[in-house]
Amino acid sequence: MVSPILLIAVPLGLAFAIPVLGLASKRVPRYVPVIAMLFNLVVSVSLLPHALKAPIVVRTAGWAPPYSIHLVAGPLGVLLSSLIALIGLLVAVYGIDYIREGAKVKYQILYILMLVGATGVVLTGDIFNLFVFFEVLCISSYALVAYRGDSTGVEAGAKYLIQGAIGSGLVLIGIGLVYGTFGTLTMADIAANVSSVGSFRLFVSLAFLITGFGVEAAIFPLNGWLPDAHSSAPSSISAILSGIAIKAGLYAIARVVYTVYGASSILPFLAVLGIVTLLIGEMCAFGQEDIKRLLAFSSIGQMGLILFALALASATGISGAVFLIVSHGLAKALLFLASGYMIYRTGSRDISSLNGIGKRMPIMSLCFTVGAFSLIGLPPFVGFASKFTIVRAVLGTGSTFFITLLAIGLIGTVIEGAYFLRIVQGFYFKPAPEDSPEQTEGKVPFSALVPVGLLAVLILTIGLFPGIVGRVLGPAADDLLDRTAYVQHVMGD
Amino acid sequence: MSPQAILITAFAGAGLVFLAGKVHSHLRDFLAVLSSLALVGLIAWSHGQYGPDNEIVYVPDFLGMELALRLNPLAWFFAIYIAIINAASVVFSLSYMKGKEKLGFYYSMMLLVNAGMLGIVLSGDFLSFYIFWEIMSWSTYLLISYRRGPALHAGMKYIIMSLVGSCAMLVGILSLYAQFGTLQIAELGEAIAGSSSGYVLFILMAMGIAFGVKFAILPLHTWMPDAHSEAVSPFSAVLSGVLVRMGMYGFLLVMYSIVGLKTILNLGAGFFNFHYILSWLGAITIVIPTFIALLQNDAKKLLAWHGIGQGGYMILGMAFGTSLGVAGGIFHTINHGSYIALLFLVVGAVEYRTGGVRDLNRLGGLIQRMPVAFFGCLVGIMGLIGMPLTNGFVSKWFIYKTLITEGHPFLAFMAFVGTWGTILSVYKLLHNMFLGQLPEKYKEVRKAPISMQIPILFFCFVIFLFGVLPGIPLRAIQGIQDTMGFAPLQLTMWGLASGAGALNMLNICFAIVIAFAVVLLLMRLGAKPRRVPQEDSYAAGSSVPAGKYHHSVEFYNPLYQMISPYLKDRVDQFYYWAADKAQGVFELTRRIYTGYAGTYVLYIISFLALLIFLQLAWEIW
Amino acid sequence: MSFLSSYIHYIGCFSLILIGLYVVLVKPNLIKVIIGINLMGTGVNLFLVTVGYIHAGTAPIFSEAAQQPEGMVDPVPQALVLTAIVIGVAVLALALSLAIRVYDHYGTLDLRKIKALRW
Amino acid sequence: MTGIIQIVLSPLIAFVVGVLFLGLARKIIARVHRRYGPPIYQPVIDVVRMMSQRSISHGALFELGVVLALAGSLVTVMLIPLGGTEAFQPFAHSVLCPLSSSGGLLVVMYLMLFGPLGLALGAGASANPNASIGVSRKMLLALAYEVPFLLVILAVMSQYGSISLTEIVARQQQASWGVLSVPLSAVAAFLILPAMLGIRPFDLVTAPQEIASGPLAEYGGTCLALITVQKAIHLFVVIALFVDLFLGGGVNLATFLVKMLAVFLAVEMINAVLPRVKIEDAIKFCWKWPTALAFVQMTITVLSK
Amino acid sequence: MDRNQIAKWLKSPAKMANKYSLHAVYFCTGCGIIEIPPVITTRWDAERFGIIPVATPRQGNLFMITGYVSLKTLKAIIRTYEQMPDPKYTVGFGSCPINGGMYWDSYNTIKHLDRYIPVDGWIAGCMPRPEAVFIAITHLWTLIDKGKADGYLRYQENYAAYRRNQEMLFAELEWPPLYPCDSIAEEARK
Prior knowledge:
The complex is a heteropentamer of chains A (493), B (621), C (119), D (305) and E (190).
Chain A: H1 6-24, H2 28-53, E1 56-59, E2 70-73, H3 75-98, H4 104-123, H5 127-145, H6 151-182, H7 187-193, H8 199-217, H9 225-232, H10 235-261, H11 267-286, H12 291-310, H13 315-346, H14 357-360, H15 362-376, H16 382-397, H17 400-429, H18 446-464, H19 467-481, H20 483-491
Antiparallel strand pairs in A: 1-2
Helix pairs in contact in A: 1-2, 1-4, 2-3, 2-4, 3-4, 3-10, 3-13, 3-18, 3-19, 4-5, 4-10, 5-6, 5-10, 6-8, 6-9, 7-10, 7-20, 8-10, 9-10, 9-12, 10-12, 10-13, 11-12, 11-17, 12-13, 13-15, 13-16, 13-18, 13-19, 15-17, 15-18, 16-18
Chain C: H1 3-26, H2 30-51, H3 75-106
Chain E: H1 3-11, H2 13-20, E1 23-27, H3 36-40, E2 52-53, E3 62-66, H4 71-83, E4 89-93, H5 95-99, E5 121-123, H6 130-146, H7 151-157, H8 159-170, H9 184-189
Parallel strand pairs in E: 1-2, 1-3, 3-4, 4-5
Helix pairs in contact in E: 1-2, 2-6
């Protein structure tokens, strides 16, 4: 068994080696992210069977928790790190030819850093470490959003940065409060001691943490940055941001709420929040004319649904949420990647300019369609399986409150269907705009077709055989739900 | 033949045709026809092979559930009906679609819709039912949009309503799962027996919304006229003939296979009985759409509104829960499938030959140019009206008799009035397309190609066959009813044998044939008339040059002026109003994202404050 | 000890945080906002340090002057603060560079006018 | 055997009586108009004359429409019980109704469609504008009178709890006539009788002065002769139906015919004195009074059941 | 009905029926039509002879031209006549159809109707009284009996001549010849 720490160390090392490698050859740095993520993918997947048996706890510096900074590679963590590595790999392949301007070396470094940050977030067992990885993720994404240096990118980056900085400040305050209360930063240790402390003090720290992580997780009133950042970033970065980064935030919230605090009575509030986020996201997406902005708002909606499912506090619910994280990650990455080349081809991000693209870019638009169908939740694509699990979980709870929320949430699904299908319709059945410039740079290279096609195939395959992911979902849900087991594993007996 | 083989053939056909479309057009056409005919053959061959041998778990573990297929009389009946109409449409498409773009897509989607529908009827559990249902929904959506222009709007309308329906169905299905821990249709039937009537009602409502949207029961019907009139004609035939009737299948499945006859009939009290309310919905669905159809001038829209209206008869028959009524409902389903498909094909043929004209005010006199199409249209409208000798008559007779003997003359009245609305509007269809004067520009119209004539004549044959010998399909329906626990009917090959209220189609057929012969003989006795061209027509002594006037415009103008103010599609208007308002709300919601960073920060801080406030006020943790 | 004297550090650092937030909230100038963020960051860092602070404690180093851990301030927050400062510097640097690019593109630093992306 | 005799007999009776009624109608109207009037067999002469004339045809459907109409009417007759048993004691059937077990009143209602539909088809094939207008009027008028007529029929059917005409007749003979047990329906039915027969004030379908006799505009010769016969049989069918539904049918053919004659005379009196209405007014009339009456009666019937 | 009648009926029902069922197309060209209402209504009651007006020429067998015939009307008269089914009888009513009557010198009125369509009988007078109509009808019965009311046959026989006459008046007719013959226009084309 390889150590999960390699998941962080190797890519980090590779990232910082890029400038050096860049001296040797100009072409090599382009492939470094691919290599790094391929490594991560192989390691994560190979870790999966072990993690399923029992969470792997890596203690740094030879100290036992609670004194050490350690990684906890539970089923959930490894599943998510596999997802990160998978999407990271595919997007890295896509990025080889997609990134055409600017300082490519910096892009590669930041790209790896971002993914390392995300991997760290899902693997760490220490709350401050969580913050640090979070910052790695955030700062690199601020930079990547503004990577193109055009006006919208810079503007979005600046706004993202302002909100992100506030968010991380709040997280830090929360961590300070936690530390002040418990004198420890190990999540398992805190979890073990939570019940011993008066609730309001604890709640304040929880509130700070939720708000802080919520900014990155794009929960409803905290997501002002998201549409800007996701729509202005290069498409490959948008794919990562939507597919992975915001999930990391949500993971952090789930970890904090479930494992650290065990705050089950706050969950109905989160459920409401999730549904509100879902509705707001879908409603805002409905009127969008900019395809990437639309996809960004759709991400907000999906995050709401995931949050809602997480808040169900049942094994099925959390399985559904994790499943939706996977399926949304795949689908949204696919959509952003596909739209990237469509935007190159048409030279515009207007949805109307994409009309009739089905003829000019058949494979890309077919894949886009697959992704869109999956997001709406149409069988036999993976989105259906995940939404199905969520609905099943809600009805399994048998609580009127949740069922009512679900009914409202399903309206969001319908709205989502409406705008996605409108786009798909435009692709195939609307005539191309008269004055559409035929951009020669829009020729889709092989390096873009492969990841997009692979994502579509994955969506279809997992949709047909949800057991592929399904086996991991149960343990992953337990990982979140079962606090005592977590504490036991980390702290040792 | 196992249901799995049928489904594999269906889906493989769809895939192969798409690939073949990339290779060669003839190969594509050949494959499409071959696979749709092969399906008919396979299903026909599997007749009677019911029982445990044909219950197959094809995915043992889909998120912890089994996906199963099974074949039983109900499934087989609907499967053959789907396959036949689809095959006819595919054959019809050969010449109708010739030279159009994206044919590979078109054919594969036709077959995919077909496969989805077969999947629905063959699925042995609700999860696969839902999956196939959705596959059918989105492939239908793509096919409706195929024609572009206004079709896009129709497609959107369809898919949005369909999504609403599927959400409701998903809730219903999963509620069943949560309640009983299984989705196997066979097991659910036993499991649900003990549950409260409130729960059963909830399930029926949730499912009913989905089925009602597909079935176009009145408040949920608004997608149908647009979708039908905008789809290409062969697909309209499938859409109106079978796809919409999947709702019927769903109702039958849920109401009688699962919930069970006794529970259904005792659901609610007095006037507010479930099946009674459903019947009233059915009755309203008959009357209003039929009269709206009367006002239409677009041939396909007219037929589409009839598709809705005829659905009301099926609901009426089915909701009553008597042997006769349910038999009538099911029989009417296939009958409607046969003649509405026929009529859509005829309109398609006319459209094909006249260059896409469907406006009834611009056609006329085509009987001289397209006799086969005319014959098809005549038979079709006779079926739609329910003239004796056609199958539509028998099923309507069943339904009427149920209504009268069950003591619901008001429902019967609505059904009858609907029939009269039908007569008026379909005669207008026939008259304005085929009768009256032939406009000059259609003088050169040729008759429909052979690949169009074959399906048309086939359906004509079916209509008459089932009309004269209704025992053929009714035997099969009897088989279905046996599985649902209905008392058997006293069927004969030619109708119903039960005393004074019997029906003997063969007698009527003989009587009509003899009367026909006698009258023809009388005709021969008289002087033989002289054939004159249509210009030689009485016009108060003047000779009106051909093409100078055309009179089939605004056929029912007096009535139109009287009733059109009352027959607006208010539901549709309401939906549009609601959609408009919703978009307004969406636009307002978007304004949350002001673009000013300070606002966003304010949101963050307010959120934090809200959390703490909530804790202080209500102790949420 | 009075309330004030025992909580004066907390009051101080939270005032700093609030001032920072106020600036971010109210000032439309991007540079001022960045300053606000930094103020807030400073406040947070101070807060973290304060958490581990013991009145009249010594540095957490086992030296001759201080042999007992009881009298030492908690070292962990200090380590945290070090990290946080580093992060803060990174953010600040990025923010300022973004501010420059924003000014290049928009010719202003007034966030109220930099609203190309909205709705 | 008796069945075959009945099958031959009942259309024959319908033909003879119907044609005579046509002649009688002309005679009655003439007398009301203080004219002498044609001989009562004048329609026979007309039919023979038309048969001898060599008219035109606008295609096969032009003639087939007529055949369809007449055949439909002939079959309809076979479904209607023409009086009871006594006069036909040798026959096994108790009622002169050859197709009594073939669907009952519902089939009658549909078979009555053949007439209008056949004529409409033929007229449509003639490509004459007047014919089209006439057909349109015919359809609208049918819609107008069918609404009350359906209510009437349904009231009768629910009153006697059967869809079979023979049964309805039998029960009327046992108990009270329809005109007594469902009186408002009877009135409504009588009010729409002229519309069903297409006579004044509802002769707007074949209005000769306005639309050159509408659907018949292009018909002459044999076809017109058959149409006249069809008209006669239709007249017979409608009046027989009225007698069966409300006047208890007949104990035997003779009483049946007498009742028919009574109804017919009453209707012809209306025909003789009233002018023609517009189609809009016809619809309004039919949907107002007869419908209201029939509706009230049906409600009463349903509630009292 | 005497025995003689019955024998006639049995011998040739068609002829007898035609005789007693004269369905008339009154072509109301001029003042003559004013005498027709009394004929068909209460005072004289033509219906007792089986004579009723019909709406279209398709249904009739008696064609009565009741007044002067202008050029324009003549076209309609020819058309109407040709649309009537055989056998059909034409009666000119009043002096105008016979020789132009008081319009004898009008440039726009034809003088001899029987040059354009065959006429089986004339009712002279300006105006003829209703009684004259009945006299004409009884005369027509005799002609039918004797087989002399054969206008429609003559029209068929001499169609070429009639058509020529018609076309001389109207240069070109809008409808094709009723019976096969070469019209002037076609001849000219040859």
